Amino acid sequence: MLDQLEELEAVARTLEPTADLRSEIQNQAFEYTGQFIESLAQRPGFIQADCPNLSALQVTEQGKPFEELLALLRDEVNNAGINPASGCHLGYIPGGGLWASSVGDMLAAATNRYAGIFYASPGAVLIENQMIRWLCSLVGYPSTAHGNLTSGGSIANLIAIQAARDAHGICSANVRQAAVYFTAQVHHCVHKALRITGLHEAIQRVIPMNDHYQMDTAALEVAMKKDREAGLTPFMVIASAGTTDTGAIDPLDAVAGLCEQYGAWYHIDAAYGGFFLLLDEYREKFRGIDRADSVVMDPHKGMFLPYGSGAVLLKDAQKLIAANTHQAAYMQDAYGLDEINPADCGPELSRPFRGLRMWLPLHLHGVEPFRAALREKVLLCRYFHEEIQKMGFETGPFPELSVTMFRYPGKDPEVFNRKLMDLLHADGRVFFSSTQVDGRFWIRCAVCSFRTHLAEIRIALDMIGECVANLI
Ligand SMILES: *Cc1c(COP(=O)(O)O)cnc(C)c1O
Description:
The chain is of the alpha/beta class. It is 44% helix and 13% strand. The protein has 16 helices and 13 strands. The radius of gyration is 24 Å and the shape is globular.
């Protein structure tokens, strides 16, 4: 047995590279990321390409040299599709990719702190909880609030909706009498969450919007009143603070009043819009957000973190904990709390130490540059909105945040704008995405990358001008 152990150990130890090999790999990796970042200004926002060598790569018994693997990443992963690290990504809602976060991820993964439970890593949990408290303070929540750092907005919405379901005791016996209210502009992850939680069996009321794509609160009131009178339970209203298509913010304060009146859970999806709370001039538009029972925001959007960072916040932490705490015999050492355990605030037990990728840039840079960047995004979007109109385009409403939509008017705008979208993708200098609003085709411009500045918007406008000229 001892001989066998010795043999196995010799092979198993190759999982632990020597100090020399580690620094060689580390240097190559950092040299590459350095070159990647330096070359971003010259890189297109979108490349249509295949990944032939990657497709052919087999998992083998023996390892391969790091150079070979890095080359695949460089040539095929980072050279095909949308480039979300680029300031020329203006499609969907761009994520960020702050470099300091990548250092945080490296440190978090290499030291592998267990961020699920306080006693396992008091420091890691403290960092996460401090980040959550900072987000709660942005929303204006009291000290009874808490939340969870998640992989993104979809899971954050799911956690909030499940907590709402459990707090209101919605179950198979009463779900068909429970009503949920939202507009047609609600993010599709809400529908996924309703299905996962069984709430797709509840009554779903799609509330009409005004011409700024905001929830019509008079219509919401009528719907809730009618449901109540019919013996149904107005259970939850889901408002959006920054819709994906146009960045619309629902009338948050007015909706809060109705939720209080009808005893409904009030959830706000601010995955995209939430970080604009950092700007004083947006305080009025977000008035009432602190009256919500739950709020979602995505640090991988408005805080420019790499993908994999969302947050759910509940005004009453106990409701979040009640919806997620389970005791297990093999976890008996973990109970007795000094800090709330992240594992008691969501479905995950083991989880990455997500707080570090947010904590590091926030403390390294301070808040000021985040405010400046968000304010810059708003102005860049307004500039784009004005300039694109001068070029003869029809636009959506004046952008409330940093998203606008545009289409070229004319004889057959549906066909023309689809062709234009294809040409813009084929050009690829700047990446845009399209949508369908009220049955009409629109191209969207979403400014949300910390790397988007005036130069990128000018490239975008030039590119659009050239593509239109090619089509007319
Ligand atoms: C991006 C977004 C989501 C989904 O978040 P993911 O992080 O992509 O899971 C949900 N709601 C809104 C309003 C969003 O902008």
